[in-house]
Amino acid sequence: MKLTATQIKNAKPGEKPYKLSDGAGMYLLVAPTGGKSWRLKYRIGGKEKLLSLGAYPEVSLRDARERRGDARKAIAAGIDPSAKRQAEKRARTAADTFEAVAREWIDARSGQWSQSNKHQVTRRLERDAFPWIGQTKVHELEPPEVLQMLRRIEARGAIETAHRVKQLVGQVMRFAVATGRTQRDPTPDLQGALKTRRVTRYASIVNPGEIGPLLRDIDGYSGQHATRCALQLAPMVFVRPGELRKAEWGEFDLEGSVWRIPASRMKMNALHIVPLATQAILILRDLKPLTGAGRYVFPGARSCDRPMSENTINAALRRLGYDKDQMTGHGFRSMASTLLNEQGWNRDAIERQLAHAERDNVRAAYNYAEHSAERRRMMQAWADYLESLKARA
Fold first, then answer.
1. Which of 175-189, 297-311, 350-364 has the lowest mean pLDDT?
2. What's the CATH number of domain 98-190, 1.10.150.130, 1.10.1060.10, 2.40.50.180, 3.30.1020.10?
3. Which segments cross the bilayer (predicted)?
């Protein structure tokens, strides 16, 4: 005999639990406390088993019968519904570990990162976070556990890395909050708990009176011609050293006076446009007969199939007598940024030419077209300014 909604509603608790059967193995269990829950008794593989179908009234009579029907279909197909539920629960639990959520976050951000940046983030988490908190459920991750993991990094003297890993953990946890896996990010509670990191600034010459001698020294460099050209071009384009040394001839339009660096080679994974001043064009035209038949503008000393070594620019500066506390390849960016701002150029145009990530939503709204003309004027004026400094006695 099947149950009715009225019977279920009017069922009163007794001194002991009792069952109200609805047939096909399903019944309502009424507890002495008044609680009512659905159960399904079934046999599979010669063994009798019991499956919970939910509590009444959250699960109505109709809902319980639908769940019974689904379970019976699974049993008929040789699938144990109880074992299936446990496997699904384990899968959901595994997907909520810090490592699982972190890898999901990395995949979600991949379209915004370069391959090198993605590799760096993944490697940092794999080395410094996953071994210690990777298998912890994100909703169970507490500040002391995160701090203990960060202390291990500090212990080897990697203070900057500890701060970077803390930032990554915070980003992963905020992603976990956004996707409903936890309620909060524990990293703000660690404010002030780590050792103060030293701010790394690349050595740079920004005094105009010292820039002229530097440029004259570069012109007098007696090493490889391609290296001298790279040194001469670096102040005029102020791209990152890796973007300069990996430059390919196919990226340059010398007639149009522009260098288009593809997104795959940029830190922020976005196409970067570098307007070329006439002085920069002359340097490139001078170099092209030497390296123009190959892929790279500045090929390696040992192989034309590979770009210039990452140490070449800094080594050349050392050879010219500038130590690491005076000038670096990265320092040409600081030189341009400092002086262009002092000269009153539009900050948005400078930041975009430096290919910095926009942190201000209003500034981020500017696109390349809105600054292209000003950037072209700025780059030519900057090259003219450098030339005037070099010409001074």
1. 350-364
2. 1.10.150.130
3. none
Q: Which CATH number fits domain 208-391: 3.40.50.300, 3.90.25.10, 1.10.443.10, 3.40.980.10?
A: 1.10.443.10
Query: In this predicted model, what pLDDT tens digit does every residue of 91-111 receive, in sequence order?
Result: 665 678 999 999 999 988 877
- Whose tokens are 């975009």? That residue is 352
Paired strand residues for 261: 272
Q: Any alpha helices (H) in the chain, and if so which ranges?
A: 5-10, 61-76, 81-94, 98-109, 115-128, 130-133, 143-155, 159-178, 208-219, 225-237, 241-245, 278-291, 312-319, 331-342, 347-353, 361-364, 368-391
The residues carrying an active-site annotation are 240, 267, 330, 333, 356, 366
274-301 confidence digits (pLDDT tens): 999 999 999 999 999 999 999 999 999 8
The pTM for the full model equals 0.54
Report residue 69 as tokens.
């029907």
Dihedrals φ, ψ of 21, to 5°? -80, 140
The values of phi and psi at residue 135, to 5°, are: -95, 5
Locate tokens 């696109």: which residue?
367
Residue 129 CA from chain centroid, whole number: 15
- Between CA 37 and CA 76 the distance in angstroms is 24
Residues whose CB falls within 8 Å of the CB of residue 66, separated by 6 or more in sequence, listed in order: none
Overall fold of domain 5-89: Double Stranded RNA Binding Domain (3.30.160)
Sheet order of strands, 258-261 included: 252-253, 258-261, 272-275
